[in-house]
Amino acid sequence: MKQFLTEHWGDTASVAGLVVSLVGFVIAIRQASRARTAAQRAEIAANQIRSTIYGFDLLQNLTALTQILSEIVTLHRHAAWQAVVERYATARKFVVAIQAAGFAFSVKEKEVVASLRRQLAEMEKKVERVIVSENRPPDASRYNETIRQFQDDITQMTVRIRTKLEQRDVN
């Protein structure tokens, strides 16, 4: 054996080098695979955090919209038509932001938000015409009935989204 190693030491060194290279290559592949997996997990975590932040922004907009709708009801009761026009415009801005959020709304929720946007624009136009022409004001109780229904729908959306975000945090 000693004579074989002496005569073929170059061949033996080559084989040993090949084995070391193969072991090193396998280790490098495993490390690269682990690094790729870690990068994928980090990307998933970043996406979840981003989604959660967008969800909380959406909740904030929904809550603000609900408050503005409450103010609109109060302004209708007091026949404060000049002030209510501004609140319609502010509410519509929140509705647009909610629509642009790209959240996974149900079909019904999308319809509610789109309908609210149209309703607010229509109310704003009618009230502006009343202010300019000093015509008879709109029926505040009918307007409030419409707004209250939207408030209920928006509150349901808010609860569903909050629950979904909380469940995501638990998982």
Q: Would you give an account of this structure?
A:
- 89% of the residues lie in helices and 0% in strands.
- It is rod-shaped, with a radius of gyration of 32 Å.
- The chain is mainly α and 171 residues long.
- The chain is built from five helices and no strands.
In short:
Helix content is about 90%, strand content about 0%. The protein has five helices and no strands. Helix 2 packs antiparallel against helix 3 and helix 2 packs antiparallel against helix 5 (about 140-170).
Can you give the mean pLDDT? 88
- Beta strand count: 0
Helicity range = over 70%
Structural class: mainly alpha
In N-to-C order, the SSE pattern is: HHHHH
Described by strand count, sense and barrel closure, the largest sheet is:
none
Judging from the principal axes of the Cα atoms, what is the shape?
rod-shaped
Secondary structure topology:
Layout: H1 2-7, H2 9-77, H3 81-100, H4 107-133, H5 140-170
List keywords for this structure.
171 residues; rod-shaped; 5 helices; mainly alpha
